[in-house]
């Protein structure tokens, strides 16, 4: 592979990683936007637990917002850390990025698929899928990192 091809591939990789960071930030903000506007999360909890008082639903929403904030912050940190490692050409960057992808995808799938005691998923589908969006950039990042350069 030529030096120009290698530089282009590295730029593409870093752009995909920055997109993953942006998607993670958006996914972390989505629950707060929902809380201020559409109330999908509160309505989802209310539908699963019709006997809950408004105070109890508000407490559940606040708990979810706190949990999703921590997960979002960890995701942003993971993207920044792996971007820095890839930029610096660290030998361990591929393994670390792959591990962060597996962890992030696990968190995303947990939010999307885990059912609570009501029998419904803990998060409404829209928020669950928003949490999976960064995984698209993650899988592309991992694929680009592990792809072998083509011989010249």
Classify the secondary structure makeup into a structural class. Answer: mainly alpha
The rounded Rg comes to 19 Å
Low-confidence stretches: none
Distance between the termini: 5 Å
Report the helical percentage: over 70%
Number of separate helices: 5
Strand tally: 0
Shape annotation: elongated
Mean pLDDT: 94
Helix and strand sequence? HHHHH
Largest sheet: none
Quote the beta fraction.
under 5%
Descriptive notes:
The structure is a single chain. The protein is an all-alpha fold. The chain is built from five helices and no strands. It has helices at residues 3-36, 40-48, 54-88, 93-113, 125-146. Helix 2 (40-48) packs across helix 3 and helix 4 runs antiparallel to helix 5 (125-146). It is elongated and about 65 Å long. The termini are close together. The model has no long low-confidence stretch (mean pLDDT 94).
Key structural traits:
152 residues; mainly alpha; single chain; elongated
Write a brief structural summary.
With 152 residues, this protein is an all-alpha fold. The chain is built from 5 helices and no strands.
Topology, please?
Blueprint: H1 3-36, H2 40-48, H3 54-88, H4 93-113, H5 125-146
Helix pairs in contact: 1-3, 1-5, 2-3, 3-4, 4-5
């Amino acid at each position: 592979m030529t030096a120009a091809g290698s530089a282009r591939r590295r730029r593409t990789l870093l752009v995909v990683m920055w997109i993953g960071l942006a998607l993670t930030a958006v996914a972390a903000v989505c629950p707060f936007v929902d809380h201020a506007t559409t109330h999908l999360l509160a309505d989802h909890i209310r539908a699963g637990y019709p006997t809950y008082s408004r105070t109890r639903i508000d407490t559940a929403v606040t708990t979810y917002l706190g949990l999703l904030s921590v997960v979002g912050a960890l995701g942003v940190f993971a993207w920044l850390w792996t971007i820095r490692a890839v930029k610096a050409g660290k030998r361990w960057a591929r393994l670390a990025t792959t591990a962060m992808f597996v962890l992030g995808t696990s968190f995303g799938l947990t939010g999307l698929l885990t059912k609570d005691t009501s029998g419904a998923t803990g998060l409404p589908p829209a928020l669950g899928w928003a949490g999976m969006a960064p995984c698209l950039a993650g899988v592309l990042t991992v694929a680009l990192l592990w792809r072998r350069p083509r011989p010249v």
